[in-house]
Amino acid sequence: MSEGGGTVSEPIAIEAKRITKTYLSIQDEIHAVNPITFQIRHGEFVSLVGSSGCGKSTILSLVAGLIPPTSGTLRIFGEKVLAPSNRLGYMLQQDCLLDWRTVEDNITLGLEFRRQKSERTKSRARALLQELGLGHTLKLLPSQLSGGMRQRVALVRTLAVQPDILLLDEPFSAVDYQNKIYLEELLMNVLSKRKMTVLLVTHDLEEALALSDTILVMGGQPGTIRHTLKVPKELQSAAPLESRSKSSFRPLLNDLWKEMER
Description:
Protein name: NitT/TauT family transport system ATP-binding protein
Number of helices: 10
Shape: globular
Radius of gyration: 18 Å
Order of helices and strands: EEEHEEEHHHHEHEHEEHHH
CATH architecture of the largest domain: 3-Layer(aba) Sandwich
GO molecular function: ATP binding; ATP hydrolysis activity
InterPro entries: AAA+_ATPase, ABC_transporter-like_ATP-bd, ABC_transporter-like_CS, ABC_transporter_ATP-bind, P-loop_NTPase
CATH topology of the largest domain: Rossmann fold
Distance between the termini: 23 Å
Pfam family, one: ABC_tran
Largest sheet: 6 strands, mixed
Keywords: ATP-binding, Nucleotide-binding, Transport
Strand content: 25-35%
CATH class of the largest domain: Alpha Beta
């Protein structure tokens, strides 16, 4: 983040300047997001947390170019966001796998959409699947996989297009706690080998604290950024499970809860 976070020499990956969003209907208008300004430098992992309805997923959709801001400007690596960018990968809570396609055909779906499917890119996707421990599932259908395995396949599909920015909307909330930790560990292992900017939306404050460099606490309706927490280096450098056992973790988690309740 521009306020004390990230490596100063890194380019700004995401820049929001006083963005707002108002949804219009025949009967009413709903103000989802008040003017919000932030910067995220390339390589940072930033989480958006806050109560339901405060605009977290709206921010993610704005950054993704799925909806336009009502006012203000959004830029991805200096380019104004006018439509979805090929520099982005977006992973949702639902795995959205196509049940009639094999795992191999699911992980190359994004490559097909972007007309990037080739023997080289398919081989890269298969290697990533192997890295996440699912090399043996290539010819299986999604119905033959557990929930955690399906989420790993969805992650491979998202990463196969080699995005510079990874947008995550509650990606691990549908799995049990043990699988959540496992998926967190896999994600951070992948990120340690590939430089990406990550913007995560989550209700899980532990998850945000265990994964992030910076946490933005949103609140209100319409939503705004109420607080910015820079996660200490000792937690940033630890694996997700290990970070939860650090002495500084619980006090910071309590501070986050207090900010959420304001």
